C-alpha cells in the first residue's frame, strides 16, 4: 500500500479509541471505556474483487471491535435502497455504500437520513459534505491511463501506429465504467496512436458474459489488434474465447484492471498482457476507518485516495500471494 494511504489510516486511527471484540457480517462487539460503533455496509454484489474488499473491511472491524452488518444488493438499486432504509431505521452509527449504480447516489443519501455515509470503490455523482460523507476509492482516470501506457509499449516496440481495438465495458451508468473507457482511449491518442474501434460492448464486469460477447464477435471474422477490458474478469472471459478460436493472447494483447488472483495467474501464464492493481484491501480498511471517524464526529476529507498501480510482466510477481 502506498505511503500516502498508510498515513491516512494512521491519522484516522489516532482519532479513534482502540476497541476490542469480534466483528463479522452480523457480529456483535463490546468495548471497554468507550462507544462500540455499529456500522452498516451495503454492497452492489459479491464478486471476487468486492468480496476481497468486504473481507478486509470485516477484518478491520474485528481488529477495532466494531459491529458491521453487511448485505448484498445483488445488483439491484431497489434492493440497495431498501437495505439503506432498514439500516437507517435500526439507527446504525454510520453507513458504508458500494453503489449498484452511480445515478442512485442522491437517493441513497436521502434514505440514509442522519447517518454519516462512506461511499467505497464506486464514486457517487453528487457533491459530498465534509464531516458527513466521504468517498474511499481510486482515481479512475489513472486506471485507463495505465492500460494505455502498457499497450503503448507493446505497439511501439512493434512499430504499429494504428490500433484496431476491441473494448469490453463494465456496467453502463457507473462512473468508473465511463472513466476507465475514456481514459484508456485518451491515453493512447495522447501517445500518438490512431484508434480504430472494431467492436465495443458491455459485458457488465462478468467473465461469462465477456466470453459470450467475444465468441460472437470473433465469429464475425473481423481482425483486431488488442482487447481492452474494464476489469480482469472480462479480460479472462475474452482470453478464453480467443483460445477457443485458436487466437494467441501473446500476439493479441489483452489488458484488464484489478490485479485479481486469477488475473495474475493469467499473467504468469503469459495470457494477460497487463492489469492495474486496485487495492481491494486498502479500500475495505479505509472505508471502515472513515466510517468510524465520521461516526465519532471527525471532519475527514470528502475523498480518500487509494492509488492504482500498473502491473506488467516486470512486476506482477510482487502482487501474487
Within the largest sheet, what's the order of strands? Answer: 2-1-3-4-5-11
Integer tally of domains = 2
Number of helices: 10
Q: How many distinct beta strands?
A: 12
Give the CA-based shape: elongated
What CATH first level of the largest domain would be assigned? Alpha Beta
Structure description:
The structure is a single chain. It is elongated, with a radius of gyration of 21 Å. It has helices at residues 3-14, 48-64, 77-89, 105-112, 140-157, 175-190, 207-218, 232-244, 261-268, 280-295; strands spanning 38-43, 67-72, 94-97, 117-120, 133-137, 162-169, 194-202, 226-229, 254-255, 275-277, 303-305, 309-311. The chain is built from ten helices and twelve strands. The strands form three sheets. The chain has a six-stranded parallel β-sheet with strand order 2-1-3-4-5-11, with helices on both faces. A four-stranded parallel β-sheet has the order 7-6-8-9, sandwiched between helices. The longest helix is centred in the middle third of the chain and has 18 residues, at 140-157. Helix 3 runs parallel beside helix 4 and helix 5 packs parallel to helix 6 (175-190). It folds into two domains: 38-138 and 280-306, Response regulator (Rossmann fold, 3-Layer(aba) Sandwich), CATH 3.40.50.2300; 140-277, 3-Layer(aba) Sandwich (Rossmann fold). Mean pLDDT is 90; it is low at 1-24 and 26-34. The protein has 321 residues and is α/β, with parallel strands linked by helices. It comes from Sediminispirochaeta smaragdinae (strain DSM 11293 / JCM 15392 / SEBR 4228). InterPro entries: Peripla_BP_I, SBP_2_dom. Its main location: other.
